Every structure is written in C-alpha cells, then in structure tokens.
Amino acid sequence: MKPRIQPYISPENYHSLKAMAKRPGLSESVIVDRALTAYRAGEADNQREAAINRRLDRLTRQFGRIERDNLVLAETLATFVHYFLTVTPPVPANQVEAARAKGDMRFDLFVRQVAEALRSGQRILQNAVEDVTAEAASHEREPEALSEVRADA
Predict the structure, then answer these.
(1) Angle formed by the axes of helices 28-87 and 11-21, to 10°?
(2) Interval 93-131: pLDDT, tens
(3) Name one GO molecular function term (predicted).
(4) CA-CA distance, 75 to 62, in Å (whole number)?
(5) In degrees, to the nearest 5, what angle opens at C-alpha 129 toward C-alphas 127 and 133?
(6) Domain limits of the chain?
(7) CA geometry: angle at 12 spanning 9 and 17, to 5°?
(8) No. of H helices and E strands in the chain?
C-alpha cells in the first residue's frame, strides 16, 4: 500500500494539478509521483553533470601541461638548431662523405640512447631540471646560513 501524504501547495499549483488530473488515465497521485521522480532524476543529472565538469577541468589542466611541455620542447629544439648552425663550420668538399658516415654513426648512437632512456624510465631532461632546481634552492639557503654564522660570531 502506498503511503498517504497531505502536502500544502500554492493555489496556482493546486489549480494546475486539478486541471491535469482531469485528463484520462491521470490522477493527482500519479501526477505528483511522476513530478517527484522527474525531480530526483534531475538531481542525478546534476550530479552526473558535476562529475563530467570535474573531469573536463582535469583534462583541461592536463592539456595545458602538455601544451606547455610542447612549447618547451619546441623552444629547446629551436635554440639547439640555432646554436648548432651558428657554431658548426662548413665541411670541406673532400671530407663530406666521411662527415656523413660519422653523422650516421652518431645519429644511430643517439637513437639507441633515446630508446634506452625511454625503456629504463630515466629522463635526462627531468633529471637535469631537478638538479638545477636543487642547486638553486641550495644557493638560496646559503645566504641564510651565512647570516646565522655571522649572528653566532
């Protein structure tokens, strides 16, 4: 048996409820029951929408990091190419073949080293950045240590 309730509603809603209940196959109870069901479904939709929004925010942050990393890589490559083209002298005509062979050997070595670094999980750039960051932090602490030594003297 369904529980009986007696809620208070506004006169406008009361008149709307009475008008809708005059339709065949509908009663006041069915209309109120369907309205509550739809209301609860809307709350579930809101929760689902909030979860989707959180996921989209997380993806947006991840995309921003990827975009930043890509910019760093592009600038690193551009700086390297500029430096390389600036400091590398032209190869004499009689040494072009030997230089190409040496370049091919160096490139193969480079590719193997990159493959090994990726396979092992070792990140040269990440390690270098961590080393520089740690070194900068130690330099920042040195003035504090010096002022403490002077205070003790």
Answers:
(1) 110
(2) 999 999 999 999 999 999 998 898 889 887 877 788 788
(3) DNA binding
(4) 20
(5) 115
(6) 9-88
(7) 70
(8) 4, 0
